[in-house]
Fold this sequence. Notes:
Layout: H1 2-23, H2 35-51, H3 53-59, H4 63-73, E1 82-88, H5 90-97, H6 107-127, H7 131-139, E2 142-147, E3 155-160, E4 167-173, E5 178-185, H8 196-206, E6 211-216
Antiparallel strand pairs: 1-3, 1-6, 2-5, 3-4, 4-5
Helix pairs in contact: 1-7, 2-4, 4-7, 5-6
Amino acid sequence: MKRIIGRFIAVLTLVSLLGLSACGNSGGSFEATSFYSEGLEIVRLMSEMVQSEEYIDLVTGDTGLKAIVQELADGDYSSPKAVYAISFSDETLLAMTGLDASDSMSEDLKSLILQRTLGSLVTQLNGRSGVEHLAVSGLCTASKTFVNENADGNVIYLYTFDNAVPIAVTFTAGENKAVSASGVFVLYDMFPCGSADEIKSFITAYEDFAVEVTEIQAEK
């Protein structure tokens, strides 16, 4: 187990750089696009990622991790069955960390904490499936940055499929309408995602968190 964790930590920085360079927009101008379509681009890249032997050999040589990746590669991510938006109030995200709005820290620092807390939720969920699944979820993530003029707050889009594990894409809003998006495979097989009500019930079963879950209609 220590060897697996050590390998995971050793390649995490490389994977992060690969994800950002492969998915990030470059140059001085951007075209505003929707969360839904940008999330689909991340889904497509992650599908390609797990099906690429060259990429997997680059990030790990562990046969146990490769076996899990192969299971992901066998999935069909071409067309989502449903997409759900999952959002928490700022107060709820702060409460998850043990903080509240009255704590004496700058708004910039609070904003950073909110973004990191939201981004860590799927990682914590994957941790319930064991260290190997957690490692794979870290190795097979993808990120990008884009502009959306209507960006307001942070949200998770959950892309579900008939014959593949879900993919969660976390969107966090930054300055000048810039949005960072990061996709992670949801590997905890006890996570229900058949409807918005199922997802909300699962989340609120552990804590009485204020969470909104709505189904997002496919874009034409």
